[in-house]
Amino acid sequence: MSNNVLYAGSPWSAFSGPNLGYVMEQYELFLQSPEEVDPDLIALFQQFGAPTIEGGTTETEGAANVPSANLTKVFAAVQLADAIRSYGHLAADVYPLKDRQLDNSRIDVASYGLTDADLVEMPATLFFNNVPASVSNGKQAIDYLRAIYTGKAGFEYSHVDNKIEREWLQSKIESGIVNSSLTTEEKKAILERLTRVEDFERFIHKTFVGQKRFSIEGLDTLVVLLDEIVKAADEDKMNYLQIGMAHRGRLNVLTHVVNKPYDMMFSDFAHVPNDFFFPKDGSLEISKGWTGDVKYHMGATHTKNSGMKVKLAYNPSHLEVVSPIITGSTRAAQEDTTTPGTPKFDPSKALAVLVHGDAAFAGEGIVQETFNYANTNGFTTGGSIHIISNNMIGFTTEHYDSRSTHYSSDVAKGYGVPVIHVNADDPEAVVQVARIAFEYRQIFGKDILIDLIGFRRFGHNETDDPTVTNPSTYLIVAKHPTVRASYGERLTTEGIVTAEEVKNLDDQIYAEMQASYDHVKEVGAENGHFEVEMPEELKSGYPEVDTTIAKEDLQQINQDLLAWPESFEPQNKLAKILNKRVDAMQSGKIDWGHAETLAFAGILRDGNPIRITGQDAQRGTFSQRHLVLHDKNNGSEYTPLHHISGSNASFAVHNSPLTEAAIVGYEYGYNLENEKALSIWEAQFGDFANMAQIMFDNFISAARSKWGQKSGLVLLLPNGIEGQGPEHSSARIERYLQLSAENNWIVANCSTAGNYFHLIRRQAKMLGTEGVRPLVVTSPKSLLRHPLAAATIEQLSEGKFEEVIEQPGLGTAPKKVERIVIGSGKVMIDLADRVKDGEGYEKLHILRVEELYPFPSQKLSDIIAKYPNAKEIVWVQEEPKNQGPWKYALEYLLEVANGKKLSYVGRPEMSSTSEGDMDSHKVAQAKVIDEALAIN
Predict the structure, then answer these.
(1) What is the DSSP letter of 718?
(2) Residues 756-797: tens digit of each pLDDT
(3) Where is the Transketolase-like pyrimidine-binding domain (predicted)?
(4) CA 289, CA 744: separation in Å to the nearest integer?
């Protein structure tokens, strides 16, 4: 017997006289010697406590009106009801093609040793607190439960830990809501919607023969489901509803849920610019990039008459990756970041609806990553509604090859998420399930999952023949009516519409689509195709912006950062470290973490909110940051950046789950929605970002050119070959440089805290502008506290971001310089440490490239031109030759060298990123430094 499903009533009401006395005796024995009690009774005692009768007493007097019942059979009846609630979904009529074997074995009356006559003798109160009006005895109660739990919807909620949630779900389900009838007007509206959904696919299929669209057919009621959720959100006065989904059914959702007009959609197929067909009321927003993307990757935002925005996110074919992006965007829409302190979070403002494919939901790990952070403070959105758009197949792969679980939805159960399976061929059940899901989310602020079970009418795409790989399934599909046709017949039988009205509606809507396409052809004949141009602001580098902070302001900020309350006592060692920041302002030893915090404070004073996440973002992986302090006596937290005088925006820093792909996607989505926020994701070590490569490849580097989406996301990737082994060395900067083109982002490798200070502030200054772009920073490890990387207050108050830094003390006698060493990042500080003040290195100059992309060719050329006798240009790096910036920079360096000898100094080509032990590292690193500084 499951202890997870709670009965609405108590089983003790079934006993009277000797039977009740026996149960009471067994309860006393259970308290003293539980090993001597029958396991079934133990389960009842554990769930319901002491035996009682109505009124709460254990006295047998007053129980005479309760019919006697055979103890064994009462237990069996209780177990049967338990089984129906827990396993009824296995026998539910949720498969439209009826091609799956249903399991009734766990809910068969006879298998529990019961007869209908036994059940008739039992009271309905054994099964319900609030007995349904149609139920008067145990037989009718079991029949009622079977009808509820094995109908067109199946329910899984016994795994939900919270008792109140389980009781609410049980009460809602057993109220009979799924089987309740809709109004006549609601039914007519569903028929009209289904007709539009079907005719849209049919029109494209006939008109644009051979073009891929990844149709919705077989899951037409997905639009009905989304309609109902949108309607409920609008009635609850939400501001935003954001949808993330892959390509199947996307065009239909764009058209009928996000209100992209028919002529706009058909123009995309006809290769006529859709700009000519925008709604004149300005209710539709789309963005475009200059390279573009296929139709079924595009998104849009529709503003309803109420003002609520319904958004479908842009998304490539990579399944499931949009889910964290949408939840991040939703979180941004729920937060007020305009005042100091923690952002004001209000989950009632926005809702995320995540539409998944069945094979991908079970197969893609990012689904679990998204569920894992759903209830954490830094990443919750107050519950997402998940929908599995379940066509029972993955490309050509059957379910038994696609997963090891019974349902594709089973992964959600591990996170305590209620699951509702519903037959996609029953539109009314779909509507009612949507209502339950939305209400659950609103009440409990948690995720819920709807498994919309249908089929796929055609192959993976419309040029694919599914009978090659799935012949038996498609024999059934070929004979199966569309949901529009079957629902039309249902309403005709009910007398709500006539067969003629059903046909006329079909003809009318199809004619409407034909008229829209005719209009597209007319416009196309009059207007030629035109290309989307890359914005002028992206064609050039970042403009010069003032990133300084006045010295007196920096001093005030520093005081604010160290003025924690008298009642707050930080850990002793940490307090000493932080208090040294007072002297650092005077001594010129402002280290990396200190400079970063000062930069953040200035950004908050400028009115830009800041959000930082990462696996150890609050403290910093290398204990360098300490943005959140903990009282050593009671563990209470204090965030100094919440208390900066003159601050005009919120600050949030969250330690994230041990996840990369989903969190990077989340922060990217957050920044898309709140374009004024400085959003930062920090990898624990730089190459941990490998796990999020899809986000860099398909979104952060390319979304502007594909979809016109602007992002100013900052990525901090700790980098440095320092003997910590291959996986704690390289941020794989070569991968970001390979993706660099069209000024799509900035890739920087700063060597000083001061330059990093100005780089971060420059990024914040560009937020919300047309010229904004993401920033990739290979941040340091050992340089975090290195004296040569420290900054002075003057560098912060008077300086700016330098794309190239010349080594102090070198190059003072230009005609003597014969070798110019160029490199980037930590290795340049190693060189600086060796050359000290430059004495003995008159023939050498060293140039640090702080911004790798866009590569500062002109600045390097201008500097090199000052040394007329230079014979050799050397690129130095600590990464292996086939990694790091060398191969990317080579083309630029050949131009900069202008005929001078060009050499490489660094590790040889390696399959690993570094040596695996400290001794080997020291030898290899010393060799790099020696060769870089050697002059023939």
Answers:
(1) -
(2) 999 999 999 999 999 999 999 999 999 999 999 999 999 999
(3) 590-786
(4) 12
